């Protein structure tokens, strides 16, 4: 569609057309999956598998200039509800985990509230908003394992200022019902289990297995800085997954998992000046 001299997409006309486009993409994905032989993990167990492969904690309530505290409180409620759907889920060998097939649609009827959602590079209130935080913790857990990520979408990881030491992949995973899913495949020979809970303003996540894998993993970031582009700033970095031999500690593989170019969505005055490069 053309308005004036500018070509715009149907989804860019208004919030209503954006919502219509989301529903269309979700429907198309549902139709495609009717013909898929992908086996989605469904089984849950209250008994925890004994080996902790990886674990990750994340602060639920972010603070800073321009950050709405009500939306942050609502986000914490949404994440707590979604955690209960993930907690205890077992992914058997050959099965795929699907974020949205596990959690389902987030609605007011289910208790979800208006949290922050990111659309076209801007933050808006939306029911169920904030679950990208949960998906991001899950992605961190999976990266620290041999599991194969089969669907991943990313948005800006500069939604709020860093508090304390910079942590790679502290944000940036994007999920939007149903078309932007987060999925991974259990390509190992043993069961994998997700354990999630919220306590003391913290989201806690663990990835568990029946026994140890022969490798260990870490995430590293290189060339992290902020760069001005026009009237905006962007976080720039390269993020890697490192694989080590558990027996010798030798680096086996270094894989680039994100060439980061994230628009800063918090107040530019809070960008550390020593990290800005012209």
Label the structural class: alpha+beta
Range of helix content: 10-25%
% residues in beta strands: 25-35%
Shape: globular
Mean pLDDT, as a whole number? 90
Radius of gyration: 19 Å
Strand order in space, largest sheet: 3-11-10-4
- The parts where pLDDT drops under 50 for at least 5 residues are none
Report the end-to-end length measured between terminal Cα atoms: 36 Å
> Can you tell me the number of structural domains?
2
* Helix count from the secondary structure assignment: 4
In total, the number of strands is 14
Largest sheet: 4 strands, antiparallel
- Taken in chain order, the helices and strands follow as EEHEHEEHEEHEEEEEEE
Give a written overview of the molecule.
The protein has 278 residues and is of the alpha+beta class. It has 2 domains: 1-37; 39-213, no CATH class. The protein is built from 4 helices and 14 strands. The chain has helices at 15-34, 69-86, 99-103, 131-143, and strands at residues 2-3, 6-7, 51-59, 90-91, 96-98, 114-119, 122-127, 148-151, 183-185, 192-199, 202-209, 215-229, 232-245, 251-263.
Give a short synopsis of this structure.
By secondary structure, the protein is of the alpha+beta class. It has helices at 15-34, 69-86, 99-103, 131-143, and strands at 2-3, 6-7, 51-59, 90-91, 96-98, 114-119, 122-127, 148-151, 183-185, 192-199, 202-209, 215-229, 232-245, 251-263. The protein folds into two domains: 1-37; 39-213, no CATH class.
